[in-house]
Each structure stands twice: as structure tokens, then as C-alpha cells.
Amino acid sequence: MCSILAMACNSSGCESGSCGRDKENGRSKVEEVKEESVCLKCKSNEPMKFGDGGSDDGRFCADCFRSNVYGKFRLAVTSHAMITPSDNVLVAFSGGSSSRVALQFVHELQVKALKNYEASRDRSLPVFGVGVAFVDESAAFPAALSGEMGDAVAWVRSTVLSMSPPEKDLHVVPIESVFALKLLDSVSDETGKEDLLLHLKMLSLQKVASENGYNRLVVGSCTSRLASHVLTATVKGRGYSLSADIQHVDARWKVPIVMPLRDCVWQEITRLCHLDGLKTVELARHPQSGINDLVSSFVALLQEENPSRECTIVRTAAKLTPFYFNKIPETDDSCVPMATQRRLKKFNLKYDGSMTTEAFCPICNGPLNGSDSSEGYHESDNTLYAACCSSCRFQILPQDRSSLEHFGSLLPHHMVSQAKHHQKVDSQTYLREKIKDCLLMDDEEAEAV
Amino acid sequence: MEKGEAKSKKPPRLCCICNERRPVLKRPKTLQQCFYEVFEEEIHQAIVKNRLFKSGERVAIGASGGKDSTVLAYVLSELNRRHSYGLDLFLLSIDEGITGYRDDSLETVKRNELQYGLPLQILSYKEIFFMFFVKALDRGAALLKVDKLVTGHNADDIAETVLLNILRGDIARLSRCTSITTGEDGPIPRCKPFKYTYEKEILIDWFIVVAGIYSPNAYRGFAREFIKDLERLRPRAILDIIKSGEDFRIATTTKMPEQGTCERCGYISSQKWCKACVLLDGLNRGLPKMGIGRARGGGVNGVDHKKETKAGSTVKSLESKQCGSLDF
């Protein structure tokens, strides 16, 4: 019987199930079809071609690509309780692609929250607040930036304005508001100068955040940026404090820092900007010839050789033990929804919570290794020298001890006070947290009696 | 081959052996064919008189591809057959890994293999050195009851290893790779292996790293260049990398290889067989590349005996299998 059907079904579309050849034809037809003419995920839309020579080009359609990146953002936010309904979030915006995407995603999250709020009957969950901070570094690079900065700020302002409702406040922070410009001149090491500037930038962000009532600082650091940081930290002898810098949450600061784009790579971010027409501004700096630049070139080279290298680097570093402050602190604050509190508790169980540090470097705020601080320390030594980590001692502090006093006076007051504040308060808070199950509350005790 | 003496002025004689044909060679006054016989017979006599071989022995003929080894290969295989030595003969050639230099000779040796029916083993000199060095180091240290061994460690190499472990995601090795360094105790800090008998394997890995014997430059290219540039910018960065490596907060529960003993030689090994034994075994079985690739399914330590990685691969990649036993 099959022979008649076999003759009839020379075409590949044969439906007669009994024909052995049908399967063959069917299979070969599938093989003929080009691999990526449909999105690999939804299998319906045409894949997006970015033509940037990067990996995975032409595999996903625009929608799936976008939802993939946004999905990573949202997963990071929810699983680390980065942004909860009662929060007031400040987004650090530099004008670059990464922070542009962070701002965009936070905005979209807020829009969604607003929609839900307006749709809900009891209006129980408030919409979190969002502000934007832009640090004006032109004072530090006078020759290079002064001209462009005015335009850049205007552009930032209009961008933030366009992102409402909900409305967002913009805070333009001049970096010299936290330190005396003479300070940078006192640093001879090129890399040290760059790093000090980064620390000062963070300080100014912290300042504007706490002064304006924000309780979260969103930083747009992506996987690629963190990969470079892993290597720069390693080559600067900062292996101990490295794990503190690369987690999703960094709560050693007064206003905890959250990094919702930590799991997104640079390529995804630039592609998304291209896809959605997100404009960015790249401010020209004076050529950086220090270690930071060397490392980013190295990482770029490694990426060419293997596009997943950045991820591997960050994944390796993620295996280092984080610190107790690498999570949003649990709180008994009744304003925080129960769901959030439960999630925090569940998440925090993962950390081994062994606190091995009580001190932080006043300049970089890095947790100090026990052996570090005692290195070469004498009673008569300058207290600033003794308090700093070995990396800051080498690349930031002046090499001759006599200038140390003067240098210390130039440092922002915040740097020293921030460290002290943290040292005192959080170690206590932390200890209390650890033993609270064993503690009897006052009223409990009374009842027992 | 001995050169003949100057031709005598006497009238042409006959071959002193067969007395029939014209002599070709003055000394030993034989014709070509007879020369061969005499030549080979002399060698046979030398072998027998000096009891060079025992029946059943596995004998490697050092084959350089030159005339000496070609002749040797031929003669030995001939004698082995003719006089039934009962030897398991094979050609052993060394590949120094310098392309162009050895290529022609190796071709010759390969031809010898076909011509004389002798199996051919090609080893890189690095592999040889590694195996013998490992054994020598072991035995030497045991003999001298050494508690510590000082090696000419180069901080660059340790720094490079730290970096490579980060780049390759090897957290287990990352936690160990600086553990045998001592603190700085002089103006020029030297890194010394500290606990020889305890971390023997790491030591051996280290020494090879340091000696740079095993690692083809292509494998280390990226990291090495970066380290050099880094050193130029900030010389102390090399030591800072090592410091970072020592300070990394790595959980003690990170899976470390258990310390056991090698079933074959009894020395410390994290696997069933120590690396030296794996390599030697591979050599004995005619699979010199064994133990060089990463452990795969099957085999003693999980090494797939069928798979061999190509020596001299110049892929500039951190995943290159060349240094499997020295994977960072």
C-alpha cells in the first residue's frame, strides 16, 4: 500500500503518516531552513541584528532581547529587596549608557508601580520615590570639561524632565562641594588620583542622598565594569576588600548602594540603548594612563578572545565570601511591608555572617584586614596612616610622613566620620542581630516572672 | 662508517671474503654487500659480548632523523630479526617544539618508521624533563630528609597564576596558589615553598611554572603581557597581586582535592595516581600525551586514554589544553 503513497509524496509537505519518506523529507526541509530566521525565544518574530560584531547577534527579536535584559534587572531588584514601596531611591546618573539604562529601568518600574497604585482599591502599597543625581566633575578636570559641562547638564535636565510622570528631582552635585581641590594635587600617583576622585564622587553622592532624604542609591555598574574592578582591585593589593565591592548590595554606607544591572553585560546595555534610542553623553576626560586604563584594555582584549570572559571573572569573584554589610539590613520598621521583611530574612540566611572586620579605611571605605592595619604601625605614627589600608597608603597618601598631617586636613571630614560612624553603630547592630533569638525582650522577661 | 685508507698501489685484489668480486672498500676489503654483513656482524658481536639486551626488553632507539640513527634503526631491527633478540623495538624521537628546526628530521624518522616497521613515539623535550624532574625532586628531597625547599620563585609567575585563576574561574586553585609563599623577610621578598611534604603537588606545579618549562608562551601570552605592562607602570603591583591572592576571602568549604597517596609510587597525590606516574604510564603504553589534557571520563584519573591533545597547538587561548596538569 505504501508504494502508491510513496510515489505520490515526492513533495515535502506530505501528510500521509504511513509514508516512511515523509519523515525524511520533513527533516531535510527543517535543515534547509536558515538557523536564525526566527527569534530563538518566542519563535515568532524576526531576530534583531545589531551589526556590532558582538556575540549572539541576530538570535533574538527586539522584544525578547529587551525583556531579557529588563528581566535580569527586575530579578536583581526583587531578590535583593533593592527597591521596595516605601523607599526613596536616588539614581546616580553619569550620562553614560549603563546609568542611562539603570535610570530607564527604574523609571519603568516606577511607572508600573504607579499604575498598580492607581488601579488598586485600598492604595496600600505606596509608590517608591525616584530622584536623579549628576556629579559635576569639571572642577577636577578644568581644561578638559569646562566647555562641555554646561551642555551636558542641560541635556541631563531635559532627559530627567522627559521621564515623568512620575516626576523626579534632579540634583546636580559639583564635586568640589565635598573637598578642597588642593587635595588632588597632593596625590602624585596617577592611579591614586583617579581612585581618590572616585571615592570623592561616592562621597558627594552619599551627601546629596542623605541630605535629601533618600534611602537607596542606585548605581548602574554592569558586569563588565565589575570585571574590570575585580582585576584592578587584585593588582592594587585589595584582595581582602574586593568581595565587598562586587555584590548586588553594599550597605556599609549611610545610604546603601544597590547595583541592579550587575548581571548585565556592557554589550547588552549598549545594544539596548541603540534599540530604544536612549541617548547618552560621553564627557571627554584627559587621557587616563594609569592602571585602571591598562586593566580595561586588558579586559577588552580578553573579551575579544572569549565573549564570556567578563562573566567568568565576576563569577569567580562572586565566590569570594561577601561581608555582613552586603545585604539590605533587616529592619523592624513597620513601614516596610511584611513581604519585604520576609524576603530579606530568607535572603540573609545565605550569608555566613562571620564578621571579621570592624574597621574601614577612611579614604576608600574598604574593610580592613587585621594584618593590614598593624603593618608598620607605631604609636608615634600619624593616625591617618595607621587607619588607612595598604593600597591607599601607597597610592593616595603622600609618601613623606611630614606631609601627612596637612593631607589629612584637606580630606573631607566625612571620610573620617563616616568610618567612625559605621564602626560604632553597625558592629553593635550586627551583634544584636546575631544573638537576638537568645535575647529576652523586656516585656517577655516580666511575664516570665 | 669508517673511512677507507688510501688506495694501495698493488694490483687489484679480490674481496677477501668472497674472493670473487672486486673489492669496493679498502678496509675491510669487502664488497658492498659483504661490507654490510661484516658491519652488522660486528655490531651483533658487540651486543652479545657486552650483554646489552635481554630478551623481551622494550628498547627505544633514539631517532634524530640523521644518518646515525637511521642506520642504527635499520641495523637493530635487522639484527633483532636475524638473531631473534626478542626485543620490543621502537623509535623514540624528541620534538623540541621549535617549528622548522626539526621538521625535516622528524619526517625522516617517520619514514624510518614505515621502512623498518618500527613504531614511533614522539615526545616533546618538555614532557621528558617534567617527568624526570618530578621524580628527581621527590627522591632527592626524601633522600635528604628535606623539610623545606627553596626554589628560585619568580614573583611574576605567582602573580600571573593568581590572575589566570581569576580569569579561568578556578576558585579552588585560587585559594591555594599563594598559600606556599612566606611573608617578606628581606629587602627583596622571595616566595618560597613552605611546606614541601604537605603540599607537594602544588610545589611541583609551582616549580614548573617558575621554570617556565612547561608552559608554551601562547598559553600565557595575554596574562604575561599584561603583567609586564603593569610592572612598568607600578613595579610593586606584582607583589600586590600576590597579596590580594593571599587575602582573598575564600570559604574553607571550597572543595579542595583530598590528600591521598599515589597507588603506583606511594607519594602524595590528590588523585589515584600522581601526575608523574600518569605521564610515565602513558609513555609506557605509547600514549605520551596522557595526563596532559584535562581529566575526562574513563581512565585512571579520569583521563580518556583515547584522546590526545595536539602538541604544539598555538591557539592563543586561556583554555588551551597544553598545560592540563598545570591548569591554573
From TrEMBL, chain A:
UniProt family annotation: Belongs to the CTU2/NCS2 family.
Pathway assigned in UniProt: tRNA modification; 5-methoxycarbonylmethyl-2-thiouridine-tRNA biosynthesis
One GO molecular-function entry: tRNA binding
Gene3D superfamilies: HUPs
Record protein name field: Cytoplasmic tRNA 2-thiolation protein 2
GO cellular component, one term: cytosol
Function summary: Plays a central role in 2-thiolation of mcm(5)S(2)U at tRNA wobble positions of tRNA(Lys), tRNA(Glu) and tRNA(Gln). May act by forming a heterodimer with NCS6/CTU1 that ligates sulfur from thiocarboxylated URM1 onto the uridine of tRNAs at wobble position.
Protein location: Cytoplasm
Alphabetical keyword list: Cytoplasm, tRNA processing
Keyword tRNA processing among UniProt keywords: yes
Species of the source: Brassica carinata
Gene Ontology BP terms: protein urmylation; tRNA wobble position uridine thiolation
Entry-linked InterPro entries: CTU2, Rossmann-like_a/b/a_fold
From TrEMBL, chain B:
Stretch forming the signal peptide: none
Domain Cytoplasmic tRNA 2-thiolation protein 1 C-terminal: from-to ranges: 260-290
Single GO biological process annotation from the record: tRNA wobble position uridine thiolation
Protein name as annotated: Cytoplasmic tRNA 2-thiolation protein 1
Cited Pfam families: ATP_bind_3, zn-ribbon_14
Domain tRNA(Ile)-lysidine/2-thiocytidine synthase N-terminal: 59-194
One CC-aspect GO term: mitochondrion
Keyword line: ATP-binding, Nucleotide-binding, Transferase
GO molecular function, one term: transferase activity
